[in-house]
Amino acid sequence: MRYEMLGNGTSAVEVTNVSTHGLWLLIHEKEVFLPFEKFPWFQDAPIGKVVHVELPTEQHLYWPELDVDLEVESVLYPERYPLVSRVHEAGEGYAPQERTAEWDQEKIDNCVLALLQLTLHDGVYAWKGHDFDVMNRLFEKGYILDPRNKNKSVFLTERGLVRSKELFEELFGKKEGGAIK
């Protein structure tokens, strides 16, 4: 009996094996091991949810039923993405600066929205390492999707992308002869 390939594979990413120590992920014909000690989100998850993985962009992995987003690079090079903050390891806490009524929240929101341009990746995602209150206000204004999740990135809406770029150029563009370059 002879078997023939009926067509090309349809999945650019798939979980090929799961053990008590971790899972194996095949990404574009490259297999990588994700140990549970470095990727704890999968350890106690039902197998049906672990194997449901998507690759929305070339550098973005997503497990919709677990609401887990990972950059492909963080899977290939987990040592570059430690799970524990050095601040917390040192026993220091995060202490936000005391807010005053004198601060202009609109200016702060505009500045953060502009700064999202610096970490923009895959065209629509930006790292969300900014103040929670500011990110929530940007969500309420329709510039980003809801930032309250486990994701390390936030999705900028079409309106948010346009406004973010405008603000970045306005706030940080070099001015020559009165015009921004």
Overview of this protein structure:
With 181 residues, the protein is of the alpha+beta class. 27% of the residues lie in helices and 23% in strands. It contains six helices and eleven strands. A hairpin with a 2-residue loop joins β4 (54-57) and β5. α4 (105-115) crosses α5 and α4 crosses α6 (158-172). The mean pLDDT is 83.
Give a quick precis of the structure:
This protein has helices spanning 47-50, 72-76, 86-89, 105-115, 132-140, 158-172, and strands at 13-18, 22-27, 30-35, 54-57, 60-63, 68-71, 120-121, 125-127, 153-155, 175-176, 179-180.
Count of individual helical segments:
6
Number of domains: 2
Mean pLDDT: 83
Structural class: alpha+beta
The CATH topology name of the largest domain reads: Arc Repressor Mutant, subunit A
Q: What general form does the structure show?
A: elongated
Distance between the termini: 68 Å
Beta-strand percent range = 15-25%
Query: Could you name the CATH class of the largest domain?
Result: Mainly Alpha
Q: Could you name the ranges where pLDDT drops below 50 across 5 or more consecutive residues?
A: none
- What would you say the CATH architecture of the largest domain is? Orthogonal Bundle
Q: Estimate the helix proportion, in percent.
A: 25-40%
Radius of gyration: 21 Å
Biggest β-sheet: count, sense, barrel? 3 strands, antiparallel
- Give the strand line-up of the largest sheet: 1-2-3
> How many individual β-strands?
11
Note the run of SSEs as H and E: EEEHEEEHHHEEHEHEE
